[in-house]
């Protein structure tokens, strides 16, 4: 029975990772199966497993704080309904720890991540080359701007930046004696993924890719850190000349931050936090907060916010506005403990490379979350709690022998 929990959790998370990019039309039945599998895997571990699950008390406290925020929210019914899947997806955190203790389950999930990123990048590039996506046959945009493949929104490609460090930690290499040549498959995969992201015109995701690559290389070979600026200039020059993903237009928008509608959105989030600082307005309630703000007659010179804004486009402000100081403090404490776990993993030669990939993934999330991302979206939650669970798993004080030998 010791292999039941890792197998169930690995299959569930792998299915979720592969399904994530395809969007919600496939969600309802598959998400139920995935969550049920995760729950069964966690329960099986508690009764039969041998891997230690860490920080469950903090995780439960964060979940309970979210429930309190929703229960006392002025938008209680809406908040409970929208945050339900987010609460269930907290199961990914202990499930990832169970998987992290088993080498076979770990490789299974890594290959699923690799597959999901490759398929989405191919789908977007295919749409660019042949005017329709490969997966669902979605036509290319008429203005040839922001190709998204079969995704419903270009922002959803952000999962590529969040999970690419974990995918590249999978040892896929050519059986050749020259170290540089052996890494050609990984290098081609990374370049192909970046090109797919470039076609979406997602500025936040491109920045996340750059951050993740630097963080991971900082704990391994620091050659990339020295050359990252040169690579950035070369990539930007090629993108500018080819105008991939309307690169020139996106640069122009970035250089005019005064026209960015997110500034007003952040103002609204701060106002909402100041009104209910302890418990917040309830998880997933920002759409109602934004709509209520639109009805206020403004005398302070601020612009009326855009309608239909479902999230803050800043996870720290989202936590404060929706979950208040209580939920934000518990969230911060949990990730402070995970940072300590990662320090232990980086200090251990057996887990150093994998810990560097996890650190890159979590740092990418932290960076991108300042300008985008939201815990309201299932794929964001899966990426966050998957990396967080892996971070906790490397903090168990793994002995110097490899995890592969230990788990097998």
Description:
The protein has 408 residues and is an all-alpha fold. It has helices at residues 4-19, 27-48, 56-71, 76-88, 92-100, 103-130, 158-168, 179-182, 184-200, 203-218, 223-242, 247-254, 262-275, 286-294, 315-347, 352-368, 378-393, 403-407. Helix 7 (158-168) runs parallel beside helix 10 and helix 7 packs antiparallel against helix 16 (352-368). The longest helix has 33 residues, at 315-347. The two termini are 14 Å apart.
What class would the helix/strand composition place it in?
mainly alpha
Mean pLDDT: 82
Order of helices and strands: HHHHHHHHHHHHHHHHHH
Straight-line distance between termini: 14 Å
User: If helices are DSSP runs of H or I spanning 4 or more residues, what is the number of helices?
Assistant: 18
List strands and helices in order, with pairings.
Elements: H1 4-19, H2 27-48, H3 56-71, H4 76-88, H5 92-100, H6 103-130, H7 158-168, H8 179-182, H9 184-200, H10 203-218, H11 223-242, H12 247-254, H13 262-275, H14 286-294, H15 315-347, H16 352-368, H17 378-393, H18 403-407
Key structural traits:
408 residues, 18 helices, globular
Briefly characterize the structure:
67% of the residues lie in helices and 0% in strands. It has 408 residues and is an all-alpha fold. α7 packs antiparallel against α9 and α13 (262-275) packs across α15 (315-347).
